[in-house]
Write a structure and sequence with these properties.
The structure holds two protein chains of two kinds. Chain A is of the alpha+beta class. Chain A is 49% helix and 18% strand. In chain A, strands 1-2-3 form a three-stranded mixed sheet. Chain A is globular. By secondary structure, chain B is mainly alpha-helical. In chain B, helix 1 packs antiparallel against helix 6, helix 2 packs antiparallel against helix 5 and helix 2 runs parallel beside helix 6. The chains are: A alpha+beta, B mainly alpha. The interface between A and B is medium-sized, with 22 and 25 residues.
Chain lengths: 136, 134
């Protein structure tokens, strides 16, 4: 889902179904993508997002939203170790790259943006463990 | 009569006074969203949408963002994305109360709303007020 491989998502959803999983995240994500009609552009969309964030992203995770909207949508958090100015720049770069791509393929960017919100958020700062010498 | 600037100023003061209180952080995220939302829906920006959807009750928030996403102007797209992120923070703040809510989300919300109100308007209001709601 995050890096743009809808075939893999389908395989996971199929596996979940075979294994009688009561809840399948993959199937739920896939249902949103299919219902909104963005399956054809989804892989490239997410690959572009990932290409911009490649050197800064530390972690990513998706979630489903259904509050204050008529249809369910997806949000994907991309945690980066970067200050606010850099995060804003990355977010702008993502939108610029997506706009150029959708113009190029003559497709509607707003449809995908309305369904998948890719957010660049500040990751937690790692604290190096400190060794404490004990003196007997 | 108050305006969006008053709401975001209050959110900024509120966060400064209660940085360690999770309930305060959530309230700040919620207020920040509404500051930006009301600002963008005001006559200078979102009036065509407000008129076109008057009487509608459900799905209004996301629908407004989706309308902004339809713009071809890069600065409007950026504003739409910021408002979408603000809405997401408000959903986390107001609906997902058993989930961890970082102060970073509250700070992000204040920053996004302030950017929309203080900075971004200059570049997009001339575009928005020419558009009509489909």
């Amino acid at each position: 889902l995050i890096s743009g491989n809808i075939d893999f998502l389908r395989r996971v959803a199929d596996e979940d179904k075979k294994n009688d999983q009561k809840v399948s995240n993959a199937a739920n994500y896939l249902a949103i993508i299919n219902r909104s009609g963005i399956a054809g552009s989804f892989d490239d969309h997410q690959k572009i997002v990932s290409s911009v964030l490649r050197s800064t992203r530390t972690w990513a995770a998706p979630d489903i939203r259904d509050e204050d909207r008529d249809e369910q949508s997806l949000v994907i958090y991309h945690w980066v170790l970067a200050d606010r100015a850099t995060r804003n720049r990355l977010q702008s770069e993502i939108l610029d790259a997506l706009r150029a791509h959708y113009q190029n393929i003559k497709d509607d960017l707003s449809r995908s943006l309305s369904v998948v919100l890719n957010r660049v958020v500040e990751g937690p700062q790692m604290v190096a463990p400190v060794a404490v010498a004990s003196v007997a | 009569v108050i305006d969006a600037r008053d709401i975001i100023d209050d959110a900024i003061d509120s966060l400064a006074l209660g940085k360690t209180l999770e309930a305060r952080q959530r309230a700040v995220a919620s207020r920040s969203y509404y500051a930006a939302y009301h600002f963008l829906l005001s006559p200078a920006c979102g009036q065509p949408f407000a008129v076109g959807t008057s009487g509608r009750k459900s799905g209004f928030h996301k629908q407004f963002i989706n309308w902004l996403y339809q713009s071809k102007d890069p600065s409007v797209l950026l504003v739409a994305h910021k408002l979408d992120s603000l809405l997401d923070n408000r959903v986390l703040a107001d609906y997902k109360i058993t989930k961890f809510f970082s102060i970073k989300f509250a700070q992000d919300s204040v920053d996004f709303a302030s950017e929309i109100i203080d900075i971004d308007l200059q570049s997009y209001n001339s575009v928005l007020d020419k558009r009509t709601y489909p």
